[in-house]
Design goal:
Blueprint (H helix, E strand, L loop, with lengths): L12 H12 L7 H13 L5 H33 L6 H31 L5
Length: about 120
C-alpha cells in the first residue's frame, strides 16, 4: 500500500478551508457566518496561491449570487406581502419561500462540493 505524500503548504489554503466551514455553518447562524466567510475570502485573496485563489474567488462568487438572489426575493416578498390585501400575494409569498429555500440549498451544496474539491486538491 503506497501512501501519497501530503500536498505542500499553499498560502491561502487554510483560509479557503475556513471560509467553506463558515459557509456550511451559515444556515444555523442565520447567514451571519456566511458574511464572516466572504469577508475572510476577500481579505485572504491577495496573498493566496493560484490554487487557493481559485477557491477563494469561487467562494466570493457563490456568496454574491446568493446575496443578490436574497435581495430580489426580499423585494418580491415585500410586493407579495402588500398584495395579500387582494389575495394574489399569498401565492407570491409561497413562490418566494420555495425559491428562498432553493437558494439556501444551492448555497449549501456548492459550499460542500467546494470543500470536497479543496480537500481533493482540485481547483475550482
Amino acid at each position: 500500500m503506497t501512501m501519497t505524500p501530503p500536498p505542500p503548504p499553499q498560502p491561502g489554503r487554510t483560509s479557503a478551508f475556513a471560509v467553506y466551514v463558515f459557509y456550511l455553518l451559515s444556515i444555523p447562524s442565520a447567514a451571519l457566518f456566511a458574511l464572516v466567510g466572504v469577508i475572510l475570502a476577500l481579505v485572504s485573496r491577495d496573498g493566496a496561491s493560484p490554487f487557493a485563489r481559485s477557491h477563494l474567488d469561487d467562494q466570493i462568487r457563490i456568496w454574491f449570487i446568493a446575496f443578490w438572489w436574497n435581495v430580489a426575493l426580499f423585494l418580491l416578498g415585500l410586493v407579495g406581502w402588500i398584495l395579500t390585501i387582494v389575495l394574489i400575494g399569498f401565492p407570491i409569498l409561497w413562490i418566494v419561500g420555495i425559491l428562498w429555500l432553493g437558494v439556501m440549498i444551492w448555497f449549501t451544496i456548492k459550499s460542500f462540493l467546494g470543500l470536497l474539491a479543496l480537500l481533493d486538491n482540485r481547483m475550482r
